[in-house]
Design brief:
heterodimer, A: 9 helices, 65% helix, disordered C terminus, B: three-stranded mixed β-sheet, three-stranded antiparallel β-sheet, 31 helices, 9 strands, disordered N terminus, ubiquitin protein ligase binding (chain B)
Chain lengths: 195, 727
């Protein structure tokens, strides 16, 4: 197989192969091929921070604004690319760095999210959580409007929302004081909306 | 040519009629005059004449003559009724009505031929009905009589309601007259106004009652009024009025005041429940049942009262100190309300359900309920059932099972029950083997084989151990001498709630017997491993104190190890004891405390004297120990209830045990459904597991995530809320 060729694969090549494999319909074979590809990634011996440079390079060359499917594929690839030693999950540290890189400008709560995960998550980030965050980022706005507690979100995301509610609760008290002092009664209803 | 064909008879009659063709109204007047008897008018106007008139086509004349005469006559009667003074009015009306009916009867007889032939063929009203209609129009519906009649009737009823005695027979006749005149007459001229007046009467009266009566009295009054109205209907009103008038009373006296009644201060429903006022409650039930929302009003108040008191009970920190009392109170509360529902609420199913759901609600508010219920059983099976008949034991256990059914966390109960049963069995504290087994059977019927298999395993171990010990002593008989006697219980790992603990150092005498037993046991059962659970055993030791006083001490294994050290030393420091025995520090402290600090059981003496054990304390053999008992049982200072860290640990163990159960349920469900959305999985898992515990949705979600990670499941590519099962 070509993947095991001794020369060092560059990220463009890996990404091309990754997309190619995913476009196959046969679930079982693509899984096998992905395993092989991930083996060759290991041979490549990625060093710590270098992967973000690679990803950045790839990202700047891809046209990711065209349609979301393109970005989906890229986003999933990032997880694949960040895995170490054939592990299924990626470390919190890597996940956060990767999120900050790839979701920059695409997720309004990115900063809060990363801080939350940094602070509260001890276990590694699973692929499901990784993938669901993208869906989450697309369906909620800053006010977390659009979040459905029964929406089958991963527990980490549920916890994040609860955390945000709590902090916005305390913040809105301050806002309320401010509003009251301005005697702006019209703004009052919007406060209750944030709950 | 016009030919008239006539029969001879006909022509003969025509002749005879000739002189009588003139309608003579006198005969009719005669009918109306009761003083003249029948035969007399027959002379004036025999039926034959009427027959002849109809036969010769004078029917119309005869009929209209009847109408005119009767009308004229009735107008006269109306005058005489109107003239009747005060109370005589009804009587006059009643008498005239009687006369009119009699006359009508006669006239109908006389005019029978007309009634049969002329009336139907000319679509006229029959004589009898005509008589009633004319009575209605000329008597009842004349302005003066109509209002006077209604006022009189309503006044009489009002007076009767106020307690006067009225002439019910007369009332009966008058209302009967109205009914005879047609149900619409009865309804329009009497019933409708009657209902209206009644409504305003009861509205006023109920207002007055509710201001000055307590709930029980009010209900008594309402009940009496209701019965009076029903009695009134049966005496002198149309039976069809009953439903109408009772519904008026129900609405005015009950429905309108329902909320106020149940919530009445100091006497409302809650007070009745608290004071077991069966009669009042039963009355309330029977009255409220008659109105819409009535029973649900009672039920709602009862439910919220139950929930509130139940909640107070289970979260009261004072109650938590005594688990047995806690459960006893729950049982008493259940008994009390069962009886109320049985006696006062007609054993209503919906009330029973409300009671059950309330208990389920508040019992689970306290997450120690499973532990406490198990402790209650423990207490009963240890001592509480001594001298109690077998049936009574069953009753107690059945009641406990009823509480058990309310528990959401049955698996927690199982955990505790196992712990408590183990302690009972190992310390030989069970009072009745039958009662123990009966309880297990009940749990088994309730929760299935799996739930109790380990508990049953414990009983089996106990039996097997007995046999093993017999075998052991039979084989060792010759070598035993007078060394210590050993009783070993071999516990199957997994069936018993054993905590892995390193065995302490046993005294040499004991150790040698233990080794013998080990050799014997492993000789008969190859491939097994024995670990001594020194934290669970007991020992009986003989001790001689100063002045040669001999006592037999019943102690735990740990205590025995400590005491045996004093065979070779008079004074030992805490450190020395700890080193020699290797008993875990917390256990050692408790055990020394019970040996040295409990009055009457202080076989050791501690320096310095204090309640607690410190690491630099010194212990002496207490030469001056005395006790009036030969056998002294030295308990270990243990909390019967679990301490906080223990509780936490049990909780964690329960949570850990639940994980695989939840996962297994998810996999079972997904295996058969292949694809399912998140919320359906949560619902199905909950239903599958609720006989054992109520799984937390967040925990279920975590298990799903874990299964996704381990590739048992995957999320659907298109719909992220759907999961697929990966074979």
């Amino acid at each position: 197989m070509g993947f095991s060729s001794p020369h060092r694969l560059d990220i463009f090549e890996i990404y091309a192969r990754y997309c190619d494999i995913l476009s196959r319909n046969d679930h079982a074979t693509s899984k096998e091929l992905l395993a092989v590809l991930s083996k060759s990634l290991e041979c490549r011996g990625q060093a710590g921070e270098a992967i973000y440079n690679d990803l950045y390079k790839l990202m700047s060359c891809l046209d990711l604004s065209v349609d979301s499917r393109n970005f989906n594929c890229f986003y999933d690839f990032v997880f694949f690319f960040c895995r170490e030693n054939g592990q299924k999950n990626i470390t919190v540290h890597r996940a956060i760095s990767a999120w900050r890189l790839v979701l920059n400008g695409r997720f309004r709560l990115l900063n809060q999210w990363c801080n939350f995960v940094q602070e509260h998550q001890r276990h590694n980030i699973s692929e499901d959580t990784w993938q669901q965050l993208l869906a989450f980022s697309r369906c909620v706005n800053e006010d977390l409007e659009g979040y459905d507690p029964k929406g089958a979100w991963p527990v980490l995301i549920d916890d994040f929302v609860e955390h945000m509610y709590r902090t916005s609760h305390t913040r809105s008290w301050r806002t309320q004081d401010y509003i009251c002092s301005c005697a702006d009664m019209e703004a009052q209803p919007s406060i209750s909306n944030t709950f | 040519m016009r030919s008239i064909i006539t029969t001879p008879a006909a022509s003969a009659s025509r002749n005879s009629i000739g002189n009588e063709l003139i309608w003579d109204q006198d005969w009719l007047v005669g009918c109306f005059c009761p003083s003249q008897s029948g035969p007399l008018w027959r002379i004036y106007f025999p039926p034959r004449n009427a027959y002849n008139m109809v036969l010769h086509k004078y029917g119309e004349k005869l009929y209209s003559g009847l109408v005119t005469t009767m009308t004229w006559h009735l107008k006269e009667i109306a005058k005489s009724i109107e003239a009747a003074q005060g109370g005589l009015f009804l009587e006059e009306l009643n008498r005239k009505w009687g006369d009119h009916n009699k006359a009508l009867q006669m006239i109908r007889d006389i005019l029978m031929y007309m009634d049969r032939t002329f009336v139907p063929s000319n679509h006229k009203t029959s004589v009898h009905e005509l008589g009633l209609n004319l009575w209605r129009d000329n008597i009842i519906h004349t302005h003066k009589i109509q209002t006077r009649l209604l006022d009189t009737l309503l006044d009489l009823i009002h007076r009767e309601r106020k307690g006067e005695v009225i002439n019910r027979g007369l009332m009966r006749n008058i209302t009967k007259m109205l009914m005879d005149l047609g149900s619409s007459v009865y309804q329009e001229d009497f019933e409708r106004p009657f209902l209206e007046v009644s409504a305003s009467f009861y509205s006023g009266e109920s207002q007055q009652f509710i201001e000055c009566c307590d709930c029980g009295d009010y209900l008594k009054k309402a009940e009496r009024r209701l019965n009076e109205e029903m009695e009134r209907v049966s005496h002198y009103l149309d039976a069809k009025s009953e439903a109408k008038i009772t519904s008026v009373v129900e609405k005015e006296m009950i429905a309108n005041h329902m909320q106020r009644l149940v919530h009445m201060e100091n006497s409302g429903l809650v007070n009745m429940l608290v004071d077991d006022k069966y009669e009042d409650l039963s009355r309330m039930y029977n009255l409220f049942r008659r109105v819409p929302e009535g029973l649900s009003t009672i039920r709602d108040v009862m439910t919220s009262h139950l929930r509130e008191t139940g909640k107070q009970l289970v979260i009261d920190p004072d109650r938590l100190r005594d688990p047995v009392d806690f459960v006893q109170r729950l049982l008493d509360m259940k008994d009390k309300h069962d009886k109320i529902i049985n006696v006062a609420f007609n054993n209503d199913k919906t009330f029973q359900n409300a009671l059950n759901s309330s208990f389920e609600y508040f019992i689970n508010l306290n997450n120690r309920s499973p532990e406490f219920i198990s402790l209650y059983v423990d207490d009963k099976l240890r001592k509480g059932l001594k001298g109690v008949t077998e049936e009574d034991v069953e009753v107690v256990l059945d009641k406990v099972m009823m509480l058990f059914r309310y528990l959401q966390e049955k698996d927690v109960f199982e955990k505790y029950y196992k712990q408590h049963l183990a302690k009972r069995l190992l310390s030989g504290k069970t009072v009745s083997d039958d009662a123990e087994r009966s309880m297990i059977v009940k749990l088994k019927t309730e929760c299935g084989y799996q739930f109790t298999s380990k508990l049953e395993g414990m009983f089996t171990d106990m039996r097997t151990s007995q046999d093993t010990m017999q075998g052991f002593y039979a084989s060792q008989y010759s070598e035993m001498g007078d060394g210590p006697t050993l009783a070993v219980q071999v516990l199957t790992t997994g069936s018993w709630p054993t905590q892995p603990s390193a065995p302490c150092n046993l005294p040499a005498e004991i150790l040698s017997v233990c080794e013998k037993f080990r050799a014997y046991y492993l000789g008969t059962h190859t491939g097994r491993r024995l670990t001594w659970q020194t934290n669970m055993g007991t020992a009986d030791i003989k001790a001689t104190f100063g002045k040669g006083l001999k006592h037999e001490l019943n102690v735990s294994t740990y205590q025995m190890c400590v005491l045996m050290l004093f065979n070779s030393a008079d004074c030992l420091s805490y450190k020395e004891i700890e080193q020699a025995t290797e008993i875990p520090a917390s256990d050692l402290k408790r055990c020394l405390q019970s040996l040295a600090c409990v009055k009457g059981k202080n076989v050791l003496r501690k320096e310095p004297m204090s309640k607690d054990i410190a690491e630099d304390d010194a212990f002496f053999f207490n030469d001056k120990f005395t006790s009036k008992f030969i056998k002294v049982k030295i308990g270990t200072v243990v909390a019967q209830k679990e301490s906080e860290p223990e509780k936490h640990e049990t909780r964690q163990r329960v949570e850990e045990d639940r994980k695989p159960q939840i996962e297994a349920a998810i996999v079972r469900i997904m295996k058969s459904r292949r694809v399912l959305d998140h919320n359906s999985i949560v619902t199905e898992v909950t239903t599958q597991l609720q006989s054992r515990f109520l799984p937390n949705p967040v925990v279920i979600k975590k298990r799903i995530e874990s299964l996704i990670e381990r590739e048992f499941l995957e999320r659907d590519k298109a719909d992220r809320k759907l999961y697929r099962y990966l074979a």
